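Dear colleague,

Thank you for sharing your sequence with our group. We've completed the structure prediction you requested, and as agreed, I am returning the results in plain text so they can be pasted directly into your records. Please verify that the sequence below matches your submission; if there's any discrepancy, let me know and we will rerun it promptly.
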Amino acid sequence: MDKKTVTTIAYLSRIALDEGNEDKITADLENIIKFVDQLDNANVDGIEPLTNPLEKKAQTREDKVTAENRKDTFLDRAPKSNEDYFLVPRVVE
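Please find the predicted structure tokens below.
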């Protein structure tokens, strides 16, 4: 990878680069590419490919209510309320 390629990638990515950092960025990109190339050597014999990383079944649990209904307590403590709602002054006309 050369500086021209790094400049082109930066332009296409809409990233502004410091000219003093081009050598470091070039080296970093080369290291990333080398790291990704290591995936070619991974042993994947007997492993089925996934079409989606979330193919595993999600753990489920029984849907049951565990919280106590405290609506009446909260409405009783409110300065103003009716049977179901808090009553507040109108803010927007």
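Summary note from our side: The chain has a mean pLDDT of 87.

Kind regards,
the structure core
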